[in-house]
Amino acid sequence: GQQVMQIPQYQHVQEGEDFTTYCNSSTTLSNIQWYKQRPGGHPVFLIQLVKSGEVKKQKRLTFQFGEAKKNSSLHITATQTTDVGTYFCAGDDRGSTLGRLYFGRGTQLTVWP
Amino acid sequence: DGGITQSPKYLFRKEGQNVTLSCEQNLNHDAMYWYRQDPGQGLRLIYYSQIVNDFQKGDIAEGYSVSREKKESFPLTVTSAQKNPTAFYLCASRAPGTENEQFFGPGTRLTVL
């Protein structure tokens, strides 16, 4: 069945360093979404990528969707302590607004001041 | 305020007892989801419902049951057949439209003693 793999599972960085998390799907995706969960909180939607090769930016965050629509990455430039949390990718293989998403296991980011 | 509510935030039960977790949304979303989150396991889908009176099993449905009698409500029952019920349970609904992201409730942390 459909699987979304995400690496690394944990990442510890010094404040100001960059951070990247990667997702790979076993099948071609219709779109991919990214979520952030702060410690003790619930996942919150960050962005959706739909087009092959798409790149989107949100301030220091850069999201990419691979040409084959099977992989994606989230890159944070110059991390801050406010970036702490777990980042999840979630693949949608059918593009249905009512269907399920396939979540990666997440990357837990720790930022040392 | 529109959103998803889950109650209670913390729940304790004795082993062998069934327990029902509440999830209510006033976002007028058709699709609703239940996830289980364990440390290092990411979000695992238990059940989801795309419309009233209909629901589908997710990846880890054994030992759980749901109902969807109203659009606003999607309660989850953790039965005594669930081997390891202690976990953080998240309910979500999905928005139709351009980005159709999932909105998550604050979660219920269930501890079975």
Topology:
The complex is a heterodimer of chains A (113) and B (113).
Chain A lengths: L3 E4 L2 E5 L4 E7 L5 E7 L6 E6 L5 E4 L2 E5 L5 E6 L8 E8 L9 E2 L3 E6 L1
Parallel strand pairs in A: 2-11
Antiparallel strand pairs in A: 1-3, 3-8, 4-5, 4-9, 6-7, 7-8, 9-10, 9-11
Chain B lengths: L3 E4 L2 E4 L5 E7 L5 E8 L3 E10 L2 E4 L6 E3 L9 E3 L8 E8 L7 E3 L3 E5 L1
Parallel strand pairs in B: 2-11
Antiparallel strand pairs in B: 1-3, 3-8, 4-5, 4-9, 5-6, 7-8, 9-10, 9-11
Brief descriptors of the model:
heterodimer, A: about 110 residues, mainly beta, six-stranded mixed sheet, five-stranded antiparallel sheet, about 0% helix, globular, B: about 110 residues
Ends distance of chain B: 35 Å
Largest interface: A-B, 21 and 30 residues
Number of helices of chain A: 0
- Radius of gyration of chain A (CA) equals 13 Å
Provide the structure class of chain A.
mainly beta
- What is the helix/strand order of chain A? EEEEEEEEEEE
Principal-axis shape of chain A equals globular
- Quaternary state of this entry equals heterodimer
Largest sheet of chain B: 7 strands, mixed
Question: Could you explain how this protein is built, in words?
Answer:
Chain A is built from no helices and eleven strands. Chain A has strands at 4-7, 10-14, 19-25, 31-37, 44-49, 55-58, 61-65, 71-76, 85-92, 102-103, 107-112. In chain A, the strands form two sheets. In chain A, strands 2, 4, 5, 9, 10 and 11 form a six-stranded mixed sheet that branches. Chain B is mainly β. Chain B is built from no helices and eleven strands. In chain B, strands 2, 4, 5, 6, 9, 10 and 11 form a seven-stranded mixed sheet that branches. In chain B, strands 1-3-8-7 form a four-stranded antiparallel sheet, with no helix packed on it. At the A-B interface, strand 5 of A face strand 4, strand 5, strand 9 and strand 10 of B.
